[in-house]
Amino acid sequence: MAGTFHQIYIQYIFAVKGRQNLLLKPWRDDVFKYMSGIITNKGQKSIIVNGVSDHVHVFVGLKPSQCPSDLIRDVKNNSSNFINENKFVKGKFLWQDGYGVFSYTHSQLNNVYKYILKQEEHHRSKTFREEYFSFLRKFEIPFEEKYLFEWID
């Protein structure tokens, strides 16, 4: 009997609604751990979840049976519920609609992991907008700026 063999690594990038700086340090890691748990509970491999106050990077080893859009929908929905139930912010917390998703080979795992791990350091010199545009250009993804995130910087 033939088996299914796979090697799918993807990085999601998504932002807080209105690009507000709401992911605060005192509880940010709890949210990232919660997101990682959602991914694991869905039977996928959470490699790293990290970000800064206004956006998140999620790096995942994905099984071919998992639809990428379904996974990130569940991560965003459940994590916003977690933030709201714990009253980490005043008012209602929401993620912006949409996200970026980028694929990698096994040989790139270490570099992507290190990049995501150093988000705070990275964003001392580069805005989220600059970072996101560089991803779109690097992966040669055509885009119209009006269909991207709400930019505040």
UniProtKB/TrEMBL annotation:
GO molecular function per UniProt: DNA binding; transposase activity
Origin superkingdom: Bacteria
One GO BP annotation of this record: DNA transposition
SUPFAM superfamilies named among the record's database cross-references: Transposase IS200-like
InterPro entries with a match to the protein in the record: Transposase_17, Transposase_17_sf
Annotated Pfam families: Y1_Tnp
Domain Transposase IS200-like: from-to ranges: 5-119
Official protein name in the record: REP element-mobilizing transposase RayT
